[in-house]
Specification:
This protein is an all-alpha fold. The chain has a domain of 79 residues: AhpD-like (Up-down Bundle), CATH 1.20.1290. Helices cover 73% and strands 0% of the residues. The protein is built from six helices and no strands. Helix 3 packs antiparallel against helix 4 and helix 4 packs across helix 6. The model has no long low-confidence stretch (mean pLDDT 91).
Length: 113
């Protein structure tokens, strides 16, 4: 089972069963299935979150995608590609969220030195 996530911890007291299901089913089962690599799953999830305009969830999944081997350049390509399939506004928002995520990541790496 994956480590506890700060975003899930903030709402655990409000929706404990939902968090339990997320951890057991989504991350304990679906993400661990052998049919797709975690990298491929991350590509799918990032694209889906952009296409369905889910900016709050995208924030966390961008970091997971990087951890799973998706590159920043590939995420940029996903955002650009989806501008023509799921709408310019969704991609503009995704671009902003990615820029904020990269800045935060750089700041965290800088403070870890």
């Amino acid at each position: 089972m994956e480590q506890r996530n700060p975003a899930r911890e903030r709402v655990r007291g409000i929706v404990p069963k939902m968090i339990e299901l997320s951890e057991q089913v989504i991350y304990g089962d679906i993400w661990e299935r052998p049919g797709l690599s975690k990298r491929d799953r991350s590509l799918i999830v990032v694209a889906t979150l952009i296409a369905t305009y889910r900016p709050e969830q995208l924030k966390g999944h961008l970091g997971r995608a990087l951890d799973n081997g998706v590159t920043k350049d590939e995420i940029g390509e996903i955002i650009t590609h989806l501008a023509f399939y799921s709408g310019w506004p969704a991609s503009v928002t995704a671009r902003r969220i990615a820029a904020e995520a990269w800045l935060l990541l750089a700041m965290c790496k800088g403070s870890a030195k």
